[in-house]
Amino acid sequence: MHNFKLVTIIGARPQFVKASVVSKALRAKGVHEILVHTGQHYDDNMSRVFFDEMEIPRPDYNLAVGSGTQGAQTAASLEKIEQVLLQEKPDWVLVYGDTNATIAGALAAAKLNIPIAHIEAGLRSFNRTMPEEINRVMTDVISTLLFCPTPVAIENLRHDGITGGVHLVGDVMVDALLHYTPIGEAKSQILTSHNLTPKNYSLMTIHRPSNADSPGRLVQLFECLKTASMPVIFPVHPRTRKLIGSLFQNENHPVRLIEPLGYLDMMVLEKNAKVIITDSGGIQKEAYLHKVPCLTVRPETEWVETVEDGWNTLVNDRLEDLPKLIVNPPEPKQWLTHYGDGQAAEKITEILLQTF
To answer: Pick from 261, 217, 262: which is nearest to 243 by CA?
Structure first.
């Protein structure tokens, strides 16, 4: 057992997935990890099921921050994380990605002079109207170790004048996908339970405020999809479901609302979809790793490699094209292993131990 104490901050579903592989690697090397869940994703189907099916260690702290405005959620997380750090006195704080839990954890650590390690450092959409972009830029500035998934991420940091403590480790999502997809294929009944056949449906996820918090935008999206010639399976975030209201009075609408899914069911749905419609950064990348065409309802993406290789198409201003793109998605140009070899968690653990 190392005399090395680390606090890991997680708060949203993609971070549970990443932590499942990194926490396993840290603990296998004897690191004393304190897991803090801010409770940003508080719905049972979006939280507890992940811990159960992925065997993630139970959080040592659940801060129960819940939903709220950007400022309120960040402030509540910051205040409660600071209390944990004062009590635990860790050697390092580890944060993931670009959520409010990420920036809150990083700010709390920085103000207490605790070094920060940032997994998924260097990603940029170059859209400062996105809360996630502010979170990731600010976290990179105050981090000591920056674990980058791609060479593009390293170049982005260099452009921002950040060169110290930068490491190319690959993407921990690759580690998770390689490990859990075969398990999901063996265990999941999601295709049977929804009467789906592989490559005869599309999968949609919408959660970003620019899409999910705008009733007008949702109406536009569903209006454009009403002529789709195959089912559009839509696992609905609780916040989005509240806004949808009476949009689905027509039972013949091809969009099928289903409950939020665990990671294993989601992997199986992604892998077997003909095409994926999303505004999620993580799902764009998972679509690429599964070699499934992706239609991204955003004006830009931080995962530029997926667009350059032709597997991802930005359709933010072309929603009316969705029905034909679902049936005939753009032809990919190539598929390259941009995101590492599935050993990112091991590399991160070794670098943290060497630095400590």
So the answer is: 217
Mean predicted lDDT score pLDDT of the chain: 92
Active site residue 179: no
**Which among 338, 280, 332, 329 has a CA at the least distance from the CA of 310?**
332
Q: Is 39 left (phi over 0), alpha (psi -120 to 50) or beta?
A: left
The active-site residue out of 37, 41, 118, 207 is: 207
Residue 273 belongs to a domain = yes
- Over residues 197-210, the pLDDT tens digits come to 999 999 999 988 88
Interacting residues of 182 by C-beta distance below 8 A, sequence separation 6+:
none
Q: Is the dihedral of CA 79, 106, 343, 180 positive or negative?
A: positive
Per-residue DSSP letter, 208:
S
Which residues contact residue 4 at a Cβ distance below 8 angstroms, ignoring those fewer than 6 apart? 30, 31, 32, 91, 92, 352, 353, 356
Tell me which of 64-78, 146-160, 340-354 is least confident.
64-78
Tokens 């959620």, located at residue: 73
Number of domains in the chain: 2
Q: H helices of 91-130, where? A: 100-111
Same domain, 187 and 316: yes
pLDDT > 90: what percent of the chain?
77
Tokens (6 digits) for 306: 């997926």
Please name the residues in contact with 91: beta carbons below 8 A apart, sequence gap of 6 or more: 4, 5, 6, 114, 115, 356
Q: Nearest to residue 289, comparing CAs of 211, 179, 213?
A: 179
Rounded Cα gap, residues 259 and 253, in angstroms = 17
Question: For 76-82, what is the mean pLDDT?
Answer: 96
Q: What is the pLDDT of residue 185?
A: 96
Give the pLDDT of residue 207.
85
At 242, which CATH number? Answer: 3.40.50.2000
Q: Which domain holds residue 101?
A: 5-171+340-355
